[in-house]
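Now read these lines:
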Amino acid sequence: MFSIGDMVIYSVHGICKIDDICEKTVSGKTSLYYVLHPTEGNNQLTISTPVHNSKVVMHELPDSEEANEIIESFKYPGVKWNDKPNIRHQLYSNIVNSGDRKEIAKLVNTLMRQKIDVELRGRKLYEQDRKLLDTIQSILFKELAISLDTTSGEINEMIIDLITENN
C-alpha cells in the first residue's frame, strides 16, 4: 500500500502524488480510496481510485538502480517491429497496458529507433505510432528523471546517444 505524499505512476495520467487516503462510499459500498493528482498538465484534476483496484495499473517510481538499468537497455534492440499497423497497435497497446516498465522501455526504444530510421529517409513515423511514442516516452523519461534527480531532457539526450552509438 502506498502512503500520503508518495509519487506513483497512475495509468495514462503518468506521475501523480497521493494527497490523501480515505474512506468513500460508492453505490452503498465503503472502501479505502487513494486521492491523487497528476504532477504535470491538469493540476486541477483530482483522481480517486480504490486502494484495491485491479483494473488500473498503479506502481511506484523506479529506484536509481532500476532507472540506470532501463537507460542501459537502450543499447540493445527493443521489441520486435511489426509492419502491419493494426496488429502493431494491438501488440504495443498490450505492452503499455501491462504496466511493465522494462517492457515499456523496450517499446519506447523500438519506436525511437523506427522514428530515427524513417526521418533519415525523409519520411514521418506513422501517426498512431508517433502518438504512442510521445505519450509513453514522456511518462517514462519523467519517471527516470525523478529517480535520477535530473531532467527528462537530459534523459532524452542520454538515450539518443545510446541509440545512435549502438545502431
Observations:
- Helices lie at 64-72, 85-98, 101-120, 127-147, 152-165.
- The mean pLDDT is 90.
- The chain is about 45% helix and 20% strand.
- The beta strands are 7-10, 14-26, 29-38, 47-50, 58-60.
